[in-house]
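Changelog-adjacent note: as of this version, every example in the card shows the full chain rather than a window. The one below runs 142 residues end to end.
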Amino acid sequence: MVIKIKSLSGRLPEYETEGSAGMDIRAHLERPMTIEPGARALVPTGLFMEIPEGYEVQIRARSGLAIKKGIGLVNGIGTIDSDYRGEVGIALINWGQEPFVINDGDRVAQMVVCSYVKAQVESADELSETDRGPGGFGSTGV
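Full-length structure tokens:
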């Protein structure tokens, strides 16, 4: 499967190891960007993608930035749809206690390519029963 990518910096996302599920994405900045504690920022990547129909690209946080600096994604996981052709922006939040500085070329997120199935939705007055039933939010124990 091929994803066509236009890159303003000439850098493409890449897998860092043979077993990596996600490709690292780098910031594309004219000058350093600082995210203050508790603040959010949209980090430009200079990347534009042509994703085949039936696939999405999920944007995920980098675990090292999360645990070492408190940096995460504002929306948990971002989705890039196959019909989107705009620049990929990374919505970061600084949950840490120190300002976080991003420089051009810094790895700020990772992307995972996923296939999906479009579901048909239909209205129902009743649903089938299961052993679990309506239990959720910890109802199955610790």
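Structural remarks: The chain has one domain: 4-115.
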